[in-house]
Write a structure and sequence with these properties.
The protein is α/β, with parallel strands linked by helices. It has two domains: about 120 residues, Rossmann fold, CATH 3.40.50.280; about 140 residues, 2,3-Dihydroxybiphenyl 1,2-Dioxygenase, domain 1. It is built from eight helices and 13 strands. The strands form two sheets. Strands 7-8-9-6-10-13-12-11 form an eight-stranded mixed sheet. A five-stranded parallel sheet has the order 2-1-3-4-5, with helices on both faces. A hairpin with a 4-residue loop joins strand 7 and strand 8. About 40% of the residues are buried.
């Protein structure tokens, strides 16, 4: 019997591939052959490699928030090459987007806490022709009912943050690149930082953040800049009932920087998870002031 061949792709601009490498290792341990495209692979390159390598399944790791557009473009590229290859996606996927991914042809969606065994079982089923599509979770392993995902009930990506040395120069650069003006700028005394936001129609934002010397400076950001210079600093997810969520995460042993929320920009409540909790990426939780209150059923607003 031929070994199952899987292509693991890492499209988009984020530079974190620990999760993709963990999945690739699990698939190899299960006896599958894995082709890994490396960081920042383009969608056409992923489709071309999948066809050239004659893979049975394509797995995408996406943390940038662009999962819907990437998956739609990949399906178009596969159709153009007359290739019928099932696609599975892992990463930061809000619950509201899982049905959208299914609609564009994604066979299964996995979150950060999906068991590796479920990923392996799903890939094996898809490779054997059981092209079941899953709303919000992997295909359930034989003899086991799918469990309700215990993860973070994020409603959407709130923002991506870049740490910068020179706030004024960085704002000017981004305004020129994006062709839009900075939507909001403030100093956040609780965090001793300056923050500037560029907002997008889908509700997400690009944040520029810098240690604010007039407030005493933020040692963590200062150290980050000394080590890495201007660079991507963290991802932020919009949630509800942030303090209740933090209590649940703490009870499950998830490494937290903040066990209770603190004041953030734009009057929101924020808290950070330790990078160890999220594959080496610093993750911020954001509860908007207009969203304060108990979480609605299923995490929906």
């Amino acid at each position: 019997m031929e070994r199952i061949r899987v292509l693991v792709g890492k499209p988009g601009l984020d530079g974190h591939d620990r999760g993709a490498r963990v999945i690739a290792a699990a698939l190899r341990d299960a006896g599958m052959e894995v082709v890994y495209t490396g960081l920042r692979a383009t969608v056409p390159a992923i489709a071309a490699a999948a066809v050239q390598e004659d893979v049975d399944v394509i797995g995408l790791s996406i943390l940038s928030g662009a999962h819907e557009s990437i998956c739609r473009r990949l399906q178009e590229e596969l159709r153009r090459r007359e290739a019928d290859i099932p696609v599975v996606v892992g990463g930061i996927i809000p619950a509201a987007d899982k049905a959208k991914l299914e609609a564009v042809g994604v066979a299964a969606v996995f979150g950060p806490e999906s068991p590796l065994g479920d990923v392996v079982d799903t890939v094996r089923k898809l490779a054997s022709g059981e092209n079941n599509r899953s709303r919000g979770s992997s295909v359930a392993p034989p003899g086991r009912e799918p469990a309700k995902a215990p993860g973070i009930p994020a409603t959407r990506l709130d923002h991506t943050a870049i740490c910068v040395n020179d706030m004024g120069a960085s704002i000017a650069l981004i305004e020129e690149l994006l062709g839009q003006t900075c939507a909001h700028r403030e100093m956040v005394a609780a965090q001793k930082v300056s923050a500037a936001f560029f907002d997008f129609p889908n509700g997400a934002s690009l944040e520029l953040v810098s240690p604010e010397k007039s407030l005493g400076g933020n040692p963590g950001l200062t150290k980050f800049l000394e080590k890495r210079g201007d660079a991507l600093h963290h991802l932020a997810l919009r949630v509800r009932d942030i303090d209740g969520l933090l209590r649940r995460l703490d009870a499950r042993g998830v490494p937290l920087i903040d066990k209770v929320s603190r004041p953030g920009a734009r009057g929101h409540k924020v808290a950070f998870l330790h990078p160890k909790a999220f594959g080496g990426t610093l993750l911020e939780l954001v509860e908007a002031h207009e969203d304060s209150g108990p979480e609605a059923p299923g995490g929906e607003r």
